[in-house]
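wait is this the right file?? whatever heres the structure
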């Protein structure tokens, strides 16, 4: 599962982003073979909505805000002080990044003179600052924006451009090797968006390149990648599939990014898609029939066709991450729809959405995209679908993830999970599960742990070596402040509520 880079330094320090964390599709740390498991789906987050043991005074997510109505558009934001104080900037940001409407140009120019530009850049997720600066200049507002903000955004864009030079070089070599050895593959998500949907690839950072391969070609693909110098990063050396078992469904993979030694180039191999089995009744083999070739610089590369790519984007950001990746994935969907406007058959998309069982996630996500960016999604599409249950509430929960998650992304994830537990006993239990994950989970394809006690000991040593400095930095930069911990735990509970509302009924 796919933080985009908050700067290259984060990866150097071992602080992982959601995109560089182990995906719910896994490569074994020693053999680099993909493993799936056949176990029971856990309801580990099912009780999160009742608040946490440490922050009961803040209440649950559904108690301390009034859900907005579905007819409202860009103001669908939780009614908390942090939203109220920057609502003007949020509205301006969405208009600036969204579909250009000539009738709104004068209003946009007037708004540009009223917004607090420093606040605007502060509320913008780091992975969108370069694109914000680009749109600011495109609209002729650069003279109204403080020079240092544009300079910082320019530095971020240069860092992304430099990263793409390395990634493109490595990908060209892999494409050549895969083609020579007749390994079928498809390039997914960020790499496709960066070069097709964005004006320039330097405006869309990625933390890794995702490749889909056929299950029968996985071993050969892994061998070729390993021969190219890619290995499992040391920060995942003691990754244990049992730790993340509570968040997967039977048969789901967990993937670790493979890193080119001496670089920050990451490749992640998949044999499954969030829009297909085991989550939905769509064999991945059928997705392979909807692959097309596109020009990618001097290469011809395979990607999912316009419709399958859209389905995958939506399922990845919504059902895959419960909107915790922030605003950029919604913008990705908007830009893809704008790019493919003449090719998308919305009547067919509506029928397939219902047939495949995507309705709740497609309705919610595309409504948010349309409301936020004015995307050209016809009203007939929504009339074909049944609205998700408790739409107002789940939409408000999703918007909170979109706008707030990047502000608390530096709170160590395990700490946020611990503080989100509904009782002190469960919080303590979650910490012990980290040191000694239960071995009762029966998954025939999970590699057995030869010496569980030794694994626990090495895991603790690894935490002291790798994570202790992260916690120290988090303490120094204020990420461990009580308010930050409360908000981070609140977001974890919010994802649990979205999960409960939309998944528990399925």
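ok assuming it is, sequence goes like this
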């Amino acid at each position: 599962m796919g933080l985009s880079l908050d700067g290259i330094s984060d990866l150097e320090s071992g602080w992982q982003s959601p995109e560089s964390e182990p995906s719910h599709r896994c490569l074994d740390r020693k053999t680099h073979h993909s493993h799936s498991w056949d176990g029971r789906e856990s309801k580990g987050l099912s009780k999160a909505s009742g608040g946490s043991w440490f922050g009961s005074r803040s209440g649950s997510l559904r108690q301390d805000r009034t859900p907005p109505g579905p007819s409202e558009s860009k103001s669908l934001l939780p009614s908390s002080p942090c939203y109220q104080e920057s609502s003007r900037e949020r509205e301006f940001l969405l208009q600036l990044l969204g579909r250009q409407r000539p009738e709104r140009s004068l209003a946009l120019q007037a708004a540009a003179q009223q917004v607090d530009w420093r606040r605007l850049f502060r509320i913008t997720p780091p992975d969108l600052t370069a694109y914000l600066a680009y749109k600011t200049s495109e609209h002729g507002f650069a003279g109204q924006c403080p020079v240092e903000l544009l300079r910082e955004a320019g530095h971020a864009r240069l860092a992304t451009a430099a990263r793409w030079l390395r990634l493109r070089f490595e990908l060209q070599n892999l494409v050549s090797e895969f083609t020579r050895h007749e390994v079928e593959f498809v390039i997914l998500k960020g790499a496709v968006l960066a070069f097709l949907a964005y004006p320039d690839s330097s405006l869309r950072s990625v933390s890794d390149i995702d490749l889909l391969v056929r299950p029968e070609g996985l071993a050969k693909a892994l061998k070729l990648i390993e021969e190219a110098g890619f290995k499992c990063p040391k920060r995942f050396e003691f990754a244990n599939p049992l730790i993340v078992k509570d968040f997967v469904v039977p048969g789901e993979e967990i993937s670790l990014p493979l890193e080119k030694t001496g670089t920050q180039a990451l490749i992640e191999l998949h044999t499954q898609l969030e829009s297909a089995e085991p989550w939905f009744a769509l064999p991945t083999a059928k997705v392979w029939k909807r692959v097309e070739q596109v020009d990618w610089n001097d290469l011809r590369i395979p990607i999912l066709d316009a419709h399958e790519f859209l389905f995958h984007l939506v399922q990845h950001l919504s059902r895959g991450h419960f909107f915790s990746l922030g605003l950029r994935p919604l913008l990705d969907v908007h830009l893809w729809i704008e790019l493919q406007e003449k090719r998308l058959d919305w009547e067919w998309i509506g029928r397939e959405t219902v047939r495949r069982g995507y309705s709740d996630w497609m309705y919610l996500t595309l409504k948010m995209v349309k409301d936020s960016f004015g995307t050209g999604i016809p009203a007939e599409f929504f009339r074909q679908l049944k609205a998700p249950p408790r739409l107002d509430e789940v939409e408000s929960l999703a918007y909170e993830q979109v706008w707030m998650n990047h502000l608390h992304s530096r709170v160590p994830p395990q700490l946020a999970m611990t503080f989100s537990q509904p009782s002190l006993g469960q919080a303590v239990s979650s910490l012990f599960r980290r040191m000694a994950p239960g071995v009762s989970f029966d998954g025939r394809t999970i590699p057995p742990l030869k010496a569980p006690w030794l694994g626990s000991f090495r895991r603790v040593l690894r935490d002291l070596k790798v994570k202790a400095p992260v916690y120290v930095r988090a303490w120094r930069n204020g990420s461990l402040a009580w308010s930050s911990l409360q908000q981070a735990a609140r977001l974890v509970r919010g994802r649990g509520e979205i999960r409960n509302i939309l998944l528990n009924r399925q």
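The CA atoms of residues 57 and 99 lie 41 Å apart. so i think its the right one actually
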